[in-house]
């Protein structure tokens, strides 16, 4: 089945002769890896090493394109401009739209074969994400098919695949809550421990070199396939104690993405009506 849906994501353009070196000092991604044909996830952090926004980034002809959640585009641009005043960079909102595809049908040119790769052709860009045949397409609004976004089930299907892949862009509600390792950014090649300094880098490095992270991102599945009253940051429990929290969910698919203590794979989530639902951690599909 091929799925295409307009995503609630926006694009930031960072161009200019200093674009790569400027971003190298701002983001968790190693910009030296972003040659033509590549893409990467990454994060902008605050001083406490927590995510202000995470993104996907790929090269464009004179710089880079960053894909972020709609609700964080404005704050991400303001943050980048604050630190970009002494660099030769131009930072702006792009008019490109973001379409998510699962198992895309044939296109006019070859799609990326592997995760974290990209292709560009005639002003549009395709990025292959982690997961089973997950792609995003950045394109001019005039290139959008008329039917995109008309079927809300398409968006639900995309989000379910994102949960199964453990690859999630936060929105404004989650801003400042998570460290990049908690969202598995290091596993997805979105964090480099071999690059220079960036805001929050000391916290990220300390977690890595001291091995202090006691939780991990997990895909949870339940046999209850119906709308459930679950919210982001809701507690995940085991043995009567909180052992984590929900990041995202699609209860119609019986799925939740959660940060859970490493030793717990069988957990419970208590609904608003007091019902206790059982969940089991599943391997990510990457």
Q: How would you characterize the overall build of this protein?
A:
- With 286 residues, the chain is an alpha+beta fold.
- It has two domains: 3-172, Gyrase A, domain 2, CATH 3.30.1360; 214-286, Aminomethyltransferase beta-barrel domains (Elongation Factor Tu (Ef-tu), domain 3, Beta Barrel).
- 14% of the residues lie in helices and 35% in strands.
- Strand 15 (266-270) and strand 16 form a beta hairpin.
- The longest helix has 14 residues, at 152-165.
- The model has no long low-confidence stretch (mean pLDDT 93).
Question: What brief labels describe this structure?
Answer:
286 residues, alpha+beta, Gyrase A, domain 2, Elongation Factor Tu (Ef-tu), domain 3, 2 domains, six-stranded antiparallel beta sheet, five-stranded antiparallel beta sheet, 4 helices, 16 strands, 14% helix
Task: Record the SSE blueprint.
Layout: E1 3-6, E2 9-15, H1 19-24, E3 40-45, E4 51-60, E5 63-69, H2 73-83, E6 90-93, E7 97-102, E8 117-121, E9 124-128, E10 134-139, H3 152-165, H4 201-210, E11 215-221, E12 235-238, E13 241-250, E14 255-261, E15 266-270, E16 276-282
Antiparallel strand pairs: 1-7, 2-5, 2-6, 3-4, 4-5, 7-10, 8-9, 9-10, 11-14, 11-16, 12-13, 13-14, 15-16
| Annotated CATH architecture of the largest domain | 2-Layer Sandwich
Number of strands: 16
Proportion of residues in helical segments: 10-25%
Question: How is the main sheet built?
Answer: 6 strands, antiparallel
| Sequence of strands across the biggest β-sheet | 12-13-14-11-16-15
Give the overall shape. globular
Given this structure, which CATH class of the largest domain is correct?
Answer: Alpha Beta
């Amino acid at each position: 089945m091929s799925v295409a849906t307009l995503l609630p994501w926006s694009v930031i353009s960072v161009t200019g002769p200093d674009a790569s070196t400027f971003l190298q000092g701002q983001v968790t991604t190693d910009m030296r890896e972003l040659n033509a044909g590549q893409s990467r996830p990454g994060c902008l952090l605050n001083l406490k090493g927590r995510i202000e926004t995470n993104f996907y980034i790929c090269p464009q002809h004179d710089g880079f394109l960053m894909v972020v959640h709609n609700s964080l585009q404005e704050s991400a641009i303001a943050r980048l401009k604050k630190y970009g005043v002494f660099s030769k960079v131009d930072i702006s909102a792009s008019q490109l739209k973001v379409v998510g595809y699962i198992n895309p049908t044939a296109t006019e040119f070859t799609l990326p074969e592997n995760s974290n790769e990209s292709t560009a052709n005639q002003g549009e860009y395709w990025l292959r994400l982690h997961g089973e045949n997950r792609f995003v397409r950045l394109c001019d609004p005039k290139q959008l098919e008329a039917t995109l976004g008309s079927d809300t089930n398409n968006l639900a299907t995309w989000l379910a695949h994102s949960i199964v892949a453990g690859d999630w862009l936060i929105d404004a509600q989650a801003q400042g809550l998570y460290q990049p390792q908690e969202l598995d950014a290091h596993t997805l090649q979105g964090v480099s421990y071999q690059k220079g300094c960036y805001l929050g880098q000391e916290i990220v490095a300390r977690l890595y070199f001291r091995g202090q992270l006691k939780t991990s991102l997990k895909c949870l599945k339940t046999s209850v396939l119906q709308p459930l009253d679950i919210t982001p940051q809701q507690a995940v429990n085991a043995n009567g104690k909180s052992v984590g929290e929900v990041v995202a969910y699609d209860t119609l698919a019986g799925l939740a993405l959660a940060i859970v203590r490493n030793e717990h794979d069988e957990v419970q989530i208590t609904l608003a009506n007091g019902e206790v639902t059982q969940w089991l951690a599943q391997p990510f599909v990457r």
